[in-house]
Amino acid sequence: MTERTHAPRPLWHPLVAGIALGVTLVFTFLLTGNGLGASGAFARTAAWLGGESAKTNAYLSAFWQSGHPLNNWIVWVVVGVILGALLSAINSGRFRWKLEGAAAIGAGKRIATAFVGGVLAGFGSRVAAGCTSGLGLSGGATLAVSAFVFLAFFFVTGIVVSRIMPKGA
Amino acid sequence: MPFYDYSLASGLLCGILFGYILESAGFGSACKLTAQFRFSDWAVLKVMFTAIVVAAIGLYALSATGVIAYPDIYVPPAYLGGAAIGGLLIGAGFAVGGYCPGTAASAFGSGRLDGLVFMIGMVVGVGLFAAGYDTFGSWVTLGAIQTSRLPELLGISEPVLLALFALLAAVIFWLGSRVERKLGGALTAEALDAR
């Protein structure tokens, strides 16, 4: 552990965090007609980074036409998530630069698992046209059937795959 | 209403609130998040289910009082096959990498570089989907059904369904806390600091 002057402040009680998240979600629906999401921002970033090849791609061309990622609401949501987490982490003494999980499985392996997990999630978010927040959470709030199908498969697969992952990963 | 405010300020404001809450719940930590799948920490289910119930009740109240109308807010289409395959892949990605798209951003914001690596992986994943779109594109709309919302599908009135959901949330808290105690307790900020 790195040296520090004071201990991190406790996390919020799950009930408090859940109510705060629910209220924020209703606020987002009132403001935009849409819920909170994240994965759309990565699709727009991929389209932007893809350049010329994205322009002619059957899937990415629609995202490409919506312009620079920073002209999109959803991208600013993700920028906001990073900033909001930064504010909260600094405010509570929980901010630490680190590669979480590296202590248990080694830095190289941790980078590999984070990357592979990201690839799976990025791919999956395009098949589902949403992610845990956009489809599971926001869709769930609208009582969408697809949200609960998503969440059921999400949890069951997570539990199964966790069993075969090394501990601490 | 709604205001359909898709300005950058609106996105930034919603995102900051979202990220602040995610980090405060401990959802910037892969250890905390994946502990749900081993049942030693139920924060993910507790927070997520509470948020869904609170927001669903809020949206119901707003639509019942005529403030918003359901056709005016976005309800994801019922592509049940696409949702299932996506849920499977994102669940696997969560178990392997420790995050999902939103929580990876929250992890990066709290200083975790594995969150950033996960985000880079996501962009690559989108690229792979796009590259194989001829094959994978048809997965998106698999298993389409006409009824997009649960009350109509189940033939249960919305207030009754919401009451059942609230009851289920209470069961998750009660059961989760019991299992957590048996398995050594939920992960605290102190415990996460050492990981």
UniProtKB/TrEMBL annotation, chain A:
InterPro entries: Sulf_transp_TsuA/YedE. The chain crosses the membrane at residues 12-31, 73-90, 111-129, 141-161. Keywords: Cell inner membrane, Cell membrane, Membrane, Transmembrane, Transmembrane helix, Transport. It comes from the Bacteria. GO terms for cellular component: plasma membrane. Its main location: membrane. It holds the Pfam family Sulf_transp. It is a multi-pass membrane protein. It is found in: Cell inner membrane. Belongs to the TsuA/YedE (TC 9.B.102) family. This is Uncharacterized protein. It comes from Hydrogenophilus thermoluteolus (Pseudomonas hydrogenothermophila).
UniProtKB/TrEMBL annotation, chain B:
Pfam families: Sulf_transp. It comes from the Bacteria. InterPro entries: Sulf_transp_TsuA/YedE (IPR007272). Keywords: Membrane, Transmembrane, Transmembrane helix. The chain crosses the membrane at residues 6-22, 43-71, 77-101, 113-133, 153-175. This is Uncharacterized protein. It comes from Hydrogenophilus thermoluteolus (Pseudomonas hydrogenothermophila).
